[in-house]
Amino acid sequence: MTISYSLEVANVRFYGFSRLLFRWKGSIYRLLYKEFLVFCGVYVFFSIFYRFLLTPKQQDLFERVALYCDQFTNSNFIPVLFVLGFYVTQAFNRWWGQYTSFPLPDNLMMVVSGNVHGADERGRLLRRTLMRYANLSSVLILRSISTRVRKRFPTLEHVVEAGFMTTHELKNFESLHSDFNKYWMPLTWFSNLASRAREEGRVRDDIALRLLMDELNKYRTKCSLLFHYDWISIPLVYTQVVTIAVYSYFAFCVIGRQFLNPEKGYSGHKLDMYVPVFTLLQFFFYTGWLKVGELIINPFGEDDDDFETNQLIDRNLQVSMLAVDDMYQNLAPIVKDKHWNQRHFSIPYTLSTAAESQRPAFKGSTFDMRMSVEDLEIHQPKEAPANRAFLQHRTSLVDGFDDSLQNTNGSVNSESHIYLTDVLFHPDEKDETDEHNTNAASDREQENALLPPEQKY
User: pTM for the whole thing?
Assistant: First the structure.
């Protein structure tokens, strides 16, 4: 079962997390103790072999090999931290995605209970059958990915015996040949039955039917996601790289972290402690990290912290049937609440929580911020005056709109249309604008003098 320790860490207190270190079930000790004992045994074997079974010449050769291996374990030639960190991050994201993809019927059962009407036996039958189809689909998909559920329902006859499927539905299920997983078939039955309920008037309008189909599709999407999570795993090559990196690193540590004879003056070997405490801690942390990734990469097994799929199946079936059957139109009398005649009222506290009622309500982080006199003084900025002028941008003065100013469609030429531009300018720029307008008028007069008489204006 899933190990929960939320209550123990609800409040931060002295020695709080340390209490969790002595648990066995669901702990890292249970996952790692076999590998840890093997590593210690191999290390002790090489230590005894070096100290008592080798000749002095062979000891010199072993010491050179140990120094060479230690050189690689103390450097970044094997990037254990990098590959482990990235791998466990990806495995955790995948684990959380699988948890959030678990098909829960809560939304669907609320929609069925509120939109498939009828207190008679036919209405009850429709609602219960719809939710049974939904739960059947989740059982079929979990049989395909969870070892616990597969052991509980090894065959479809066990599913029929459990009440998720009838014998006639089993025949229809097996009569449809498909090379792929058929977990989606009960959801198709749900869709067809919902349409029939609409025809019978049990679903009163198309909006309610659409709501049923939307929730059904969300439920089906989660079933599909679980199937694809099981189908598409983290690439095997990366899992192999991480495993090889960790185990090869500590294979070199078995020789490279041996305590050598301190009389020979090797660098870093001034003490002979026999027990490599820090190497054992390093093995515990790195290999434990690898075990975490191994644990969460597939949470549908039978480990201590894997998902309780069988219990979830029981919960989903029971809750969904209660919602659409026992709870259908089962309302308590609507009465006035306790505070009906009170505009201002307070909700009582227990003695242990009474102190919380004396705390002021939070109104925002800046509500009680202190202000200086300068902060409170209102400053009115002086607005720069602006004059509004109208300039004649382009004007064609004519005695009348003759045919030469008309285009072929009979519309007035835009070049000859009189329009004004609204210009805002600062008073300091007035002289420059007037000078620009004077120069522009002079240029137009010069151009007009050069034109033939019939084109002058």
Answer: 0.76
